[in-house]
Input
Amino acid sequence: MNRKKKCGKHAVISGIRMPQLRCTRVSESGILRRVALALCACLLFTTVFGGCGTEASDEPVDPNKLQVMASFYTMYDFAQKIGGEHVQVTCMVPSGTEPHDWEPSTKDITRMEQTDVFIYNGAGMEHWVSDVLAGLSNKKLISVEASQGVSLLRSAEEEESHDHEAVHADEDEEDGHDAHEHGEYDPHVWLDPMNAKQEMQNICEAFSEADPEHRADYQANYEKWAKQFDELDKTYQTTLENLSERNIVVAHEAYGYLCRRYNLTQVSIEGMSPDSEPDPGRMADIIDFVRANNVRAIFFEELSGSRTAETVAAETGVKLLTLSPLEGLSDRQEETGGDYFSVMEENLQQLTEALR
Output
């Protein structure tokens, strides 16, 4: 299930290309072996319900609550907001872990066998989903691709080969080709609040299907948060619309939907995966772009580091600012009780500082 890591040859400028477990035998002692077996059994019947991606706790499954697994932080946050007191949610990707190339462990798959609802973003974010779902024996599981219904952006890495792929579209379709799983689209749909609202609606519908007794509560929670999305969108619109600068230079090609929504221009140093490595020519093109376009800041992500962003900033003399793709919370954000809305508000402050 390992996915190839790609490094595109071009930076993105608003879609325009720029050159550039198992139980181990601990002892022969009968007592120790019984302890080991007990621990394995515990892992089969307990799950995580406190924070996102912490290790398995001793808190047992509550049979009176809907059991939910979410692929990474944003899906976890949306699930908690919709489900409220009626759900117990496990976040699969551990805190502080970049989710693009993460894959579920045997323990994660074991938990999925006991889950009522599985929530994932889709659009290629979780490259392992199809294989894992196909191997499950849990027939009651309701899986929801939260990005269903969102108008997807093609990734810059795939735009070059789009014409070639179109030639083979018919045979790919016959072979069951699923473009969403092969990096064709930018998966970071949730950075547009209107897309995030659509994702939350899809989650609400899945919960209502799995637990119709509490349908009214799920719908009420959705309506509450839908208003928050609308207010966030309005704040972004009014704050950004009159700023003279429109270019943002980012380490990770994650902000296409945000830029599309608010008429900004994204130039990415790295590709869709934040651990891709730009070649020297691409770095030179980015540096030239910064100098030629009065770019005032380079954005990096707390979870992914800032090496390439630091290099560009050092060469051009501009400052470094953080911008979160909301794939997870930083330690600082966890400590202050951050969530989707608070992080998006932080992002707006950082964008305003860079563009005013």
The longest strand covers residues 66-70. Strands lie at 11-13, 16-18, 66-70, 87-91, 117-120, 142-145, 247-250, 265-268, 297-300, 319-322. Confidence is low (pLDDT under 50) at residues 1-51, 53-58, 160-182.
